[in-house]
Amino acid sequence: MLVPEVVDAVSPVPVLAAGGIASGRHMAAPMALGAAGIWTGSVWLTTAEAETEPVVRTKFLAATSSDTVRSRSITGQACKCYAPRGPTNGNARTHRSRYRCPFNRCLSALP
Fold first, then answer.
1. With contact defined as beta carbons under 8 Å apart, do 34 and 4 qualify?
2. How far apart are CA 104 and CA 47, in angstroms?
3. What's the mean pLDDT in 22-34?
4. Residues 96, 32, 57, 41: what is their CA dihedral angle, to the nearest 10 degrees?
5. What is d(CA 38, CA 21) in angstroms, rounded to the nearest whole number?
6. Phi first, then psi: what are they for 4, rounded to 5°?
7. Strands (E) located in 1-104
8. What is the sign of the dihedral through the CA atoms of 79, 84, 88 and 94?
9. Taking CA 81 as the corner, what is the angle to CA 53 and CA 3, rounded to the nearest 5 degrees?
10. What is the dihedral of CA 94, 100, 101, 102, to 10 degrees?
11. pLDDT tens digits for 76-97?
Protein backbone atom coordinates (compact mmCIF):
# COMPACT_ATOMS: atom_id res chain seq x y z
CA MET A 1 0.00 0.00 0.00
CA LEU A 2 1.34 3.37 -0.98
CA VAL A 3 0.66 5.47 2.15
CA PRO A 4 2.54 3.25 4.64
CA GLU A 5 5.45 2.86 2.20
CA VAL A 6 5.80 6.61 1.76
CA VAL A 7 5.41 7.25 5.51
CA ASP A 8 8.19 4.75 6.25
CA ALA A 9 10.43 6.09 3.47
CA VAL A 10 10.31 9.76 4.50
CA SER A 11 9.91 9.54 8.28
CA PRO A 12 9.97 11.82 10.29
CA VAL A 13 8.62 14.14 7.55
CA PRO A 14 4.79 14.33 7.78
CA VAL A 15 2.89 12.83 4.84
CA LEU A 16 -0.40 14.17 3.47
CA ALA A 17 -2.55 11.71 1.53
CA ALA A 18 -4.55 13.00 -1.44
CA GLY A 19 -6.80 11.78 -4.20
CA GLY A 20 -10.37 10.57 -4.08
CA ILE A 21 -11.03 11.88 -0.58
CA ALA A 22 -14.69 12.84 -0.30
CA SER A 23 -15.99 11.56 3.04
CA GLY A 24 -15.01 11.05 6.64
CA ARG A 25 -14.24 7.40 5.93
CA HIS A 26 -11.93 8.45 3.11
CA MET A 27 -10.17 10.80 5.55
CA ALA A 28 -9.79 8.22 8.30
CA ALA A 29 -8.29 5.46 6.13
CA PRO A 30 -4.97 7.11 5.15
CA MET A 31 -4.56 8.51 8.66
CA ALA A 32 -4.98 4.98 10.06
CA LEU A 33 -2.20 3.95 7.65
CA GLY A 34 0.17 6.58 9.04
CA ALA A 35 -0.53 9.78 7.09
CA ALA A 36 -0.34 12.93 9.22
CA GLY A 37 -3.29 14.44 7.37
CA ILE A 38 -5.15 14.64 4.09
CA TRP A 39 -5.33 17.07 1.18
CA THR A 40 -8.68 17.51 -0.53
CA GLY A 41 -9.51 19.11 -3.84
CA SER A 42 -12.54 18.34 -5.98
CA VAL A 43 -14.80 17.64 -2.99
CA TRP A 44 -14.87 21.41 -2.36
CA LEU A 45 -16.61 21.88 -5.72
CA THR A 46 -19.68 20.24 -4.17
CA THR A 47 -20.13 22.88 -1.45
CA ALA A 48 -22.60 25.76 -1.69
CA GLU A 49 -19.75 28.25 -1.30
CA ALA A 50 -18.14 26.98 -4.51
CA GLU A 51 -21.02 28.28 -6.62
CA THR A 52 -20.79 25.17 -8.79
CA GLU A 53 -23.71 24.78 -11.18
CA PRO A 54 -26.33 22.44 -9.63
CA VAL A 55 -26.18 19.97 -12.53
CA VAL A 56 -22.39 19.71 -12.20
CA ARG A 57 -22.61 19.32 -8.40
CA THR A 58 -25.15 16.51 -8.83
CA LYS A 59 -22.89 14.70 -11.32
CA PHE A 60 -19.86 15.04 -9.04
CA LEU A 61 -21.78 13.63 -6.07
CA ALA A 62 -23.09 10.70 -8.13
CA ALA A 63 -19.70 9.89 -9.69
CA THR A 64 -17.67 6.84 -8.77
CA SER A 65 -13.99 6.04 -9.31
CA SER A 66 -14.89 4.49 -12.68
CA ASP A 67 -16.13 7.90 -13.87
CA THR A 68 -12.63 9.39 -13.99
CA VAL A 69 -9.85 9.19 -16.53
CA ARG A 70 -6.20 10.16 -16.40
CA SER A 71 -5.48 13.10 -18.64
CA ARG A 72 -3.01 15.94 -19.02
CA SER A 73 -3.60 19.21 -17.19
CA ILE A 74 -2.88 22.55 -18.79
CA THR A 75 0.64 22.34 -17.31
CA GLY A 76 1.27 19.01 -19.03
CA GLN A 77 1.21 17.05 -15.76
CA ALA A 78 -0.96 13.96 -15.41
CA CYS A 79 -4.22 14.43 -13.52
CA LYS A 80 -7.50 12.62 -13.00
CA CYS A 81 -10.57 14.19 -14.58
CA TYR A 82 -14.28 13.52 -14.46
CA ALA A 83 -15.31 11.93 -17.75
CA PRO A 84 -19.09 11.95 -18.08
CA ARG A 85 -20.56 9.30 -20.33
CA GLY A 86 -21.95 10.45 -23.64
CA PRO A 87 -21.48 10.50 -27.37
CA THR A 88 -19.11 13.50 -27.35
CA ASN A 89 -16.47 11.88 -25.13
CA GLY A 90 -16.82 8.18 -25.76
CA ASN A 91 -13.10 7.87 -26.50
CA ALA A 92 -12.02 9.51 -23.23
CA ARG A 93 -11.98 6.19 -21.39
CA THR A 94 -9.50 4.69 -23.85
CA HIS A 95 -6.84 7.03 -22.47
CA ARG A 96 -7.08 5.64 -18.92
CA SER A 97 -3.72 3.85 -19.00
CA ARG A 98 -2.01 6.20 -21.42
CA TYR A 99 -0.83 8.72 -18.82
CA ARG A 100 0.75 6.77 -16.00
CA CYS A 101 1.96 8.68 -12.99
CA PRO A 102 5.73 8.95 -13.48
CA PHE A 103 6.41 8.73 -9.74
CA ASN A 104 4.55 5.45 -9.04
CA ARG A 105 7.75 3.43 -9.43
CA CYS A 106 9.71 5.82 -7.20
CA LEU A 107 7.23 5.68 -4.36
CA SER A 108 6.23 2.04 -4.25
CA ALA A 109 7.24 -1.42 -5.31
CA LEU A 110 4.28 -1.60 -7.68
CA PRO A 111 5.05 -1.61 -11.44
1. yes
2. 31
3. 93
4. -70
5. 8
6. -60, -35
7. 16-18, 37-39, 68-72, 78-82
8. positive
9. 120
10. -150
11. 666 667 666 654 444 444 444 4
